[in-house]
Amino acid sequence: MIGKRKKYLYAWLILLTCFLLLLSFKSFAQAPDVNALKVRLQKSKPDSARTTILLQLSNYYNNLPQPLAHVTKALVYASAAEKLSISLTDHVGIGNSYLAFAKAWRNRKDSIRAKEYLLRAKNVFVENRHFKAAGEAVLNMEEFYQYFGGSDLNIRIAYYQEALVLFRASPARDREEATLKVLGDFYYVKADYPQSLSYLKQALTLVKHVKILDKESLYDLLGSVYTALGSLDKGLEYGLLAIKMTEQGKDTTMQACAVYNRVGITFYSMKQYDRARIFYGKALNIALKNKDVLTQLDLNINIASALITSGRNNECIALLKRVEKKYPPEILSQNMGLYYAMLKCYTKLKRFDDAKSYLSRVDVFSQNTDQNSNNQLQIQGILTDYYVATLQDKPARKHLVFFKKIALAHHNPVALANAYRLESRLDSAENNYVAAFKNYEIACVIKDSLYNVRKTKQIALLEMLFETERKDQQLAVKDYRIKLLNSQANLQQLNLKQEKTTQKLVIGGALLLLILLGLSYNSFRVKQRINRQLLSQSREIENKNESLTELVSQKDNLLADKEWLMKEIHHRVKNNLQIVISLLSTQSSYLDNDIAFNAIRESQHRMQSISLIHQKLYQSENLALVEVCAYISDLVAYLRDSFDTGSHIAFEMDIVHAQLDVTHAVPLGLILNEAITNSIKYAFPDHRIGKISISLKHKDENSFELIIKDNGIGMPEAVEIGKRKSLGMSLMRGLSKQLGGQLSIESNNGTILSVEFKNEVIVKVI
Asked: Which of 102, 356, 467, 640 has its CA 20 to 30 A from that of 423?
């Protein structure tokens, strides 16, 4: 019986694994129209949408019925997707292209390259924190492991544990729940029930994130584990919850069949054999509808086991004979359960000659079965029972030792109690009554722990709650229908009253309407005359409004064109100045004369100061004004970089927030360029450490003052500052006059240059 339950849950494991793998390839699972995809590919731009189309084409060829013939095409599209994704720095596209590569190499039976690309995909996803996609890639590794013949359950568990860590790092709680559920199922198959229960309890905390049928499978697994651990009340509780989900979801698949069968197994373990047969019968009906022959055979054997244990041996023999006739030998050979049941039933009836014909088959099957599996546990129990009943002490003792060993390894209290019961019978047959009594006492203690009165009451309460909830749901449906019928009747009565009231209102309204029509006709004629006059006036107003609207629109268009032209002018002026600067730079590379080279370089700086103004203008919303604080900061930064002052010259700025028009910004910029350039070049010889300060402030209410000073070596004493006729000095004097100000230069612990000009040149103070 335990082996049958294990087989159903192992089938569950396969279904869950397939479900996870289908989700991991859900972006590629569709079979789109390949011609339509190729048309879309030709029309697409080189972006992530094209990457998606390329991946769809690759996976279309990967998923064809005979993919080996189309692997080359799949690889070509995967390669194109990879290259495009790399150029776009699209990490998801890169990872998905690696998945497409892996599937193509899998179809070509190249396990090494397939695994290599899956590992690349996982690493790309992890490095860019796409943890859900990384988890799906790991699950693909597990699927490929099986595809290439891998069957080690521990390796499969390791893949799912790695995927679990990645899903937990992502927001994908549904994927985390599904992975925990599969891990619980894996450990159930390994008969490590405590570890299985640990994973399933973790999945239970995430149950709110999953659908009804996913809850159904989780509750079913929990019930199976609790039953295997001997906690039958918990097993039944979760089994009934699984049935509730089955009925709510109207599930008629083989999943529902497994749920009903598992609850039947739990009732069987509780020795409620009639209840067990009811649920086996429900499971059998679903298997018949789904035409699942092997499952039908299993369920008939389960029903036979319930009949044997309840002492209805003749009914059991009749059922098993019908099953043996109904199913062909090739089907019966795939499931030894029929022969187990026959052996057990004939042993119970003490028809040992009939039992002996099935003994050899079961014995041979035992030798070819995993020595620590649940099937082996069931076989050893049946064989021990047979040899004890036939008083064959030596083989009975041999199989009993083996039976007890497996029961202890599986933590199966039901099987262990049966082992001690059989050992008691064997000791009694050998006249070892002390050992027989001791083993019988141990068997009773184990049974009492499983079937005490409290658990019986809990089981009855669970059944009562389940049935009560079902009846409450049925009553709620009936109450709803009654209320619906009552509301419909009330609505009909209300409609009749409303119809009568409506008739009276219609008659009264008709009379009132006739009276009002007479009164209204005269006012209508008057209003008609007034409306004609208003209409004429309205049309005249509308025509004027349209003319005004058109004029405003033309004005807006002209202003927009003007703004665009101004931006374009400033942009082109700036570009032209940059071209001239570039030409000067090119020319300077051919000069051997330092004087000429320095002259060209100074001209470049002057043009750059003007270019910065035009750049600020076309980049700002206001095309007429330059924000002086930002402009001076950029100019200083440019000169610092041009002369590579490093850290030995510090710049200190205190600039008022103001805006200048172009006619004032240009001379101000040129003065700044000349003054700062002179300070950098001459004030700090031999890389002396120094500071250049620039300030533009209100001097009083009506004027501003520009000051550029440094703490360098100052001007030579022999030089008369006011009479110097260098180009730079001439420029600064001329530009100061253009600003309407006066240039002043003095040497006092460095050089101080100042220009004072009137407030009228400042267009706007911010």
From this structure: 356
